[in-house]
TrEMBL record:
Main localization (coarse): other
Protein name: HlyD family secretion protein
Span of the signal peptide: 1-20
Residue ranges that the Swiss-Prot or TrEMBL entry lists as coiled coil: 77-123
UniProtKB keywords: Coiled coil, Signal
PANTHER family per UniProt: EFFLUX SYSTEM COMPONENT YKNX-RELATED, UPF0194 MEMBRANE PROTEIN YBHG
């Protein structure tokens, strides 16, 4: 009887062991830990005159990181502001119109031109009757006639100059001056913005990942002078195999296993792409090697704050089936 029971127990153990051997591991997705990387470029080709942080340091939003030499930008700003002030004075002068002294001067010029014209006409009138009697040369008479005509032109010019002053500034001139002033003000504003950008600050809270340049270096325009890892904690960037895509949704709670850590970290799916990608080489697992995958991101809690970027991660989908 005892032998029969022992045989039955052994049979049960073999069945359980066989089932365990035949069971497959739960579906999984692989990836890496990542941070939101913010690259801060050099707004101008100026020397770095101050560095206020170190690589790996935690910084807050708005905290100064480094300072570029503002000397040249300040000079350009001063020149732009002076140009804007000049255009303001030009516009004010045009709006005010001519001074009374200028109008009086124009009237005096007109009176002088009229007097000269009367004298020139009178002289020509005296010489004209003498031509037939042979008392005046033809050349002298021609010069007198030309002088009278020139005096008449001088009168017309003086009268036009006076009318121009009396009519004031044309609206088109004021519009041109307003446009020139707006351009000068915009240039000064642009220089002011550039000057402010030379003091590079952290746009978000995070950790300094890299400072490619050192004190005294002159980075070219657009070159990254600081790289910031933003966010309270890293997130897992994983590649979901195509057979599991239908079972993964935004907001799903999920456990993330990090290489070198015993306990899993609680996470939540925050993004999953609608278009598939080919599985990256480091995420190929067995039958999935030739299949498509969907890029997804899983947020982690503050308990993962100290984890560095780049660590391999593994996510298991225990509720999914192949």
């Amino acid at each position: 009887m005892n032998v029969v029971r022992m045989i039955r127990r052994m049979a049960v153990l073999f069945v359980v062991a066989g089932l365990a051997a035949c069971s497959k591991p739960p579906p999984q997705a692989l990836g890496t830990l990542e941070y939101d990387r913010i690259t801060l470029p050099a707004p101008a080709a100026e020397r770095i005159v101050a560095i206020d942080v170190r690589e790996g340091e935690q910084v807050g939003a708005g905290q100064p990181l480094l300072q570029l030499d503002p000397t040249h930008a300040r000079s350009e700003l001063a020149a732009a502001e002076a140009q804007a002030q000049q255009q303001r004075e030009v516009l004010a002068e045009l709006r005010t119109g001519p001074r009374s002294e200028e109008i009086d001067k124009a009237r005096a010029n007109l009176a002088a031109a009229l007097a000269q014209a009367r004298e020139a006409r009178a002289y020509y009138a005296r010489l004209a009757p003498l031509k037939g009697k042979g008392y005046v040369a033809a050349a002298d008479l021609d010069r007198a006639r030309a002088s009278a005509g020139d005096a008449g032109g001088q009168v017309a010019a003086a009268r036009a100059a006076l009318d121009q002053l009396l009519h004031g500034t044309r609206p088109e001139q004021i519009a041109q001056a307003q446009a020139a002033l707006a351009a000068a003000v915009a240039q000064a504003s642009a220089q002011q913005v550039l000057l402010g950008k030379l003091a590079i600050v952290a746009p978000r809270a995070g950790r300094i990942d890299s400072l490619p340049y050192r004190l005294g270096d002159q980075a070219p325009v657009g070159a990254p002078v600081a790289i910031l890892l933003a966010g309270d904690a890293p997130y897992a960037r994983i590649y979901v195999p195509e057979p599991l895509r239908a079972g993964v949704h935004l907001g799903d709670a999920i456990q993330v296993f990090v290489a070198g850590r015993d306990k899993p970290y609680a996470g939540k799916v925050r993004m999953i792409r609608s278009e598939p990608n080919f599985t990256p080489y480091y995420a190929l697992t067995g039958d999935d090697a030739a299949r498509l995958s969907y890029l997804a991101e899983v947020t982690l809690g503050t308990d993962a704050l100290e984890l560095p970027a780049g660590l391999p991660v593994r996510v298991e989908f225990r509720g999914s089936t192949r």
